[in-house]
Specification:
alpha/beta, Rossmann fold, 9 helices, 6 strands
């Protein structure tokens, strides 16, 4: 495939920069088990990328949990306050972010997380996230009306760049199906780095699919290539 050159890059966070999707699974499995239910991988694939309340509602409805969204959110918050500070950076991501920043490529964060959740997750990775000057927290930003797979978050995130680039000039890095659909709906190219368990037949909406960010070659999208010193 021939890719169009881009000038700006947006990163999802959960499952792309940080391994928090693994921690979400642990937490949701615990809540489901309390009510004799099982949080499945297929359900996880359907909810990834959604905003917090919509995600909670989807899990409750799908599993038939006898609790409200508010109760689910409270229970999950208690669990994740312990889990999120343990998260780690995914392979290849720090190198890419530093490379783009060092080469003056405008970069931003577009996450469905709330700012409170974000602060827990980046507690031990603040230096890296400080390299992303433009940040959008979908669950906390009132201008993001609808969560992924709707395009709102990427449109809002792109508008925060000082030069407000056209969508076709933006490249998105995502791990979820909903995130890929959202980027496409926003008119942007998208690199998908999915969970290794996901059947690749579901990844056809992405412009490029990689097993790891370590495999990414910036020059194929017209971005500065890595030098041997990096």
């Amino acid at each position: 495939m021939i890719y169009k050159p881009v000038s700006h890059v947006l990163f999802d966070m959960d499952g792309l920069i940080l391994n928090t999707e693994e921690l979400y699974s642990v937490g949701f499995e615990e809540i489901a088990a309390r009510h004799g239910k099982k949080f499945t991988y297929s359900l996880k694939m359907n909810i990834m990328g959604k905003q917090s309340e919509e995600l909670a509602s989807s899990i409750i409805n799908e599993l038939g949990l006898p609790i409200t969204v508010d109760v689910f959110m409270t229970e999950s918050r208690i669990i994740f306050e312990k889990l999120f500070p343990q998260c780690k950076i995914m392979p290849g991501v720090e190198r890419l972010i530093r490379h783009l920043r060092n080469n003056n490529v405008p970069i931003g964060l577009a996450t469905s997380s709330s700012i409170e959740s974000y602060q827990l997750k980046v507690r031990h990775h603040k230096e890296l996230f400080d390299l992303l000057p433009y940040k959008t927290w979908g669950s906390s930003d009132p201008t993001v009306k609808l969560g992924k797979p709707h395009p709102d978050i990427f449109i809002v995130a792109a508008s925060k760049f000082p030069d407000e680039p056209n969508p076709e000039n933006c490249l998105v890095f995502e791990d979820s199906l909903n995130g890929v659909l959202a980027a496409r709906a926003a008119g942007m190219q998208v690199v998908m780095v999915p969970d290794s368990r996901l059947d690749r037949k579901f990844t056809t909406d992405a412009h490029l699919v990689l097993d790891s960010v370590e495999e990414f070659r910036p020059e194929i999208f017209g971005l500065p290539a890595y030098c041997t010193c990096e």
